[in-house]
Amino acid sequence: MVTDGKVVLKDATLREGLDTPNVHFSPVQQLNIARLLEKANVPEAEMVAPSRVSGDLEVVKTLKHQGVRLRTSGLIYAHTPSCTREIEEAALCLDRFDLLMPVSPQRQPCDPREKVRLVQETVVHAVERHNDFGVGFPHSFQTEVEFLLELAGEATRCGAQRVTVYDTNGSADPFVVHALIQRFKKHLGVALFFHGHNDLGLATANSLAAIYAGADGVDVTVNGLGDRAGNAALEQVAAALHLKGFYTGVALQELKELSRIVAEESGVPVSKLAPVVGEYVFWHRSPSHLENPGLFEAFDPGLLCSERKLTGS
Predict the structure, then answer these.
(1) pLDDT at 313
(2) Can you identify the CATH homologous superfamily of domain 8-266?
(3) How many Å apart are CA 151 and CA 65, to the nearest integer?
(4) Closest Cα partner for 72 from 64, 84, 82, 83?
(5) Where are the beta strands (DSSP E) in the chain?
(6) Could you tell me which residues come within 8 angstroms of residue 85 by beta carbon, excluding any fewer than 6 positions away?
(7) What is the spatial distance between Cα 304 and Cα 225, in angstroms, rounded to a whole number?
(8) Angle at Cα 146 formed by Cα 101 and Cα 162, nearest 5°?
(9) Which residues fall within 8 angstroms of residue 119, CB to CB, at 6 or more apart?
(10) Dihedrals φ, ψ of 11, to 5°?
(11) Is residue 79 within 8 Å of residue 101, measured between CB atoms?
(12) Is residue 190 within 8 Å of residue 161, measured between CB atoms?
């Protein structure tokens, strides 16, 4: 597949990554990672979690004061009593933000009509405070599609400029993701994003399926850090999209070092078998590979400043 389409990779390492068990970033580590993301030309960095808006906004202010020029975004729950105050705080320092409404009937508010009402109210409030915001729907694959389309339609009618669908428990597959994104593209006239979790090892595949179906961007994290089994990995998605002819603007030659530093700062090691940045990706042992090793590689090692190793059996 060859295309000249541009895809936005929104990195959430400094937000979603902190949901990884035992991961804590100090202010110095956050600054270091932010500067590396900037160096890698990541177009947007999600830094604010809906459960800690005020605290994370202070981190954003600090990074900007330190000269970090990353385009920043964050998440705000649309159904909490503090929502309107958090919108006003976020509007002062974030480049953009997304209002979240969990669509599962098992999450508050449980009444679907109440979900619609609250989304309408908070979007109208956000329109008056900021000119760049969207809405996101956790559990998008665990509710009725017609309700999801209604909710997204009301949000965009009221002024939201982006819609993000979340595979919150990582149970979706590429076929389901492709079908839902295609349907959304037919009904919505705003930017469409996909957020995938990796519980079944499908986050990268699901992200690519979303892009093939017309999504404008996907959420990623360095090394796939995130809740439970993590998220779609920045390095995997960026490399795969590049090889398929999509443009992300991400500097692929910076990704291996970015992966290494985030592994050190987070304390979560990268498997030697990890796709794209793992130590063994270009390591050839089978005798049948040695004559023409490039034939057995998905991409040239020079793309990520990696080196090929030939050891024989």
Answers:
(1) 56
(2) Aldolase class I (3.20.20.70)
(3) 37
(4) 64
(5) 8-11, 44-48, 72-77, 97-100, 133-137, 162-167, 191-196, 217-220, 283-284, 309-310
(6) none
(7) 20
(8) 45
(9) 78, 99, 101, 135, 151, 154, 155, 158
(10) -85, 130
(11) yes
(12) yes
Q: Give me the residues paired with residue 192 across strands.
A: 163
Cis geometry, peptide bond prior to residue 269 (ω within 30 degrees of 0)? no
Question: Which pLDDT does position 245 carry in this prediction?
Answer: 96
Residue 123 token pair: 């979007």
Spatial distance between the Cα atoms of 69 and 35, rounded to a whole number of angstroms: 8
Q: What pLDDT, on a 0 to 100 scale, did the predictor assign at position 2?
A: 45
CB 29 within 8 A of CB 18: no
Give me the residue label for tokens 């705080």: 89
CB of 257 within 8 A of CB of 32? no
Which residues, other chains included, contact 266 with Cβ-Cβ below 8 Å and sequence gap of 6+? 17, 20, 23, 25, 223, 225
- Per-domain residue ranges of the chain: 8-266, 282-313
- pTM value is 0.96
- The structure tokens 């409030």 sit at 125
pLDDT reported for residue 1: 45
The three-class DSSP label of residue 72 is strand
List beta partners, residue 195. Answer: 166, 219
Q: What is the pLDDT of residue 195?
A: 98
Residue in the structure block whose two tokens are 């042992």? 285
SS3 14: coil
Dihedral over Cα of 300, 306, 311, 313: its sign: negative
Closest by CA to 232, choosing from 202, 191, 262, is 202
pLDDT along the chain (313 residues), means of 10: 76 97 96 98 98 97 96 97 97 97 94 96 97 97 96 97 98 98 95 98 98 98 98 98 97 97 98 97 93 95 93 71
* Helix or strand holding residue 302 (H, E): none
pLDDT value, residue 133: 98
